[in-house]
Amino acid sequence: MENTELRPGRTRMTTALGIICKAPELGRTKTRLAASIGARAAADLSACFLRDIAATINSIPESVCWRGYAVYAPANGAPILRKLLPASLGFLPQAGHDLGEVLLGAAQGLLAARHDSVLLVNGDSPTLPPRLLLHAIDALRASSDRAVLGPASDGGYYLIGLKHAHVRLFSEITWGTASVFDETCARAKEIGLPVTVLPEWYDIDDEESLRWLREEFAGTSRRFVDGARAPFTRAYLAKMPEICR
Fold this sequence. Notes:
- The chain is of the alpha/beta class.
- It contains eight helices and seven strands.
- The chain has helices at 31-37, 39-58, 78-84, 99-112, 130-140, 180-190, 207-218, 231-239; strands at residues 15-22, 66-73, 90-93, 117-122, 147-151, 157-162, 195-197.
- Helix 1 (31-37) crosses helix 2 and helix 2 packs antiparallel against helix 8 (231-239).
- The chain is globular, with a radius of gyration of 17 Å.
- The N and C termini lie far apart (46 Å).
């Protein structure tokens, strides 16, 4: 795969942290959420989510040895994302037609750039705690092969970590359903791949999960606590009190 923006990793053990992201274009971004809060607010929030998750990744100490990437779509979306994301991030266009192909292609591409492991993180979890990323990196530094999964509240996963791009992990998965996490664990069991499971966190895709975010910000959530501060998302919602009231 040719990509002049994908630079090789360091000679030390390094982990690639890829944000699976879509350029926040009006009317084309977070359509489920837009149905309840409007297309403009949905696009604006998507941009805030991406800025916050990128900031969380950038907060990881350099001594951990990592490099961040935006694994992006659509193909012409890079200029929009470059205005939002840190200049230090590499850019890798998404390849494939469904999420499984996107994730597999990203894992293959980043591992081919001489990283020892890869974490692929969704761009819809602005309060994702940095400790979960560090936990995942630590697990991937173990000597034996393994996968790391962060189960999401909707039955999918917010993070997958790999040391090798196992094609079977992404095969015959009913993407977009509440069984994605369980099916992925089943595929790992089939091929004898140990799985480290992280604590649950959540994606923000609809009105209900946006309410969870407001509860987390207000300190009233018992389910999601000690998340990242997410300053961009927090500031936007503070200016838009009518959203998800």
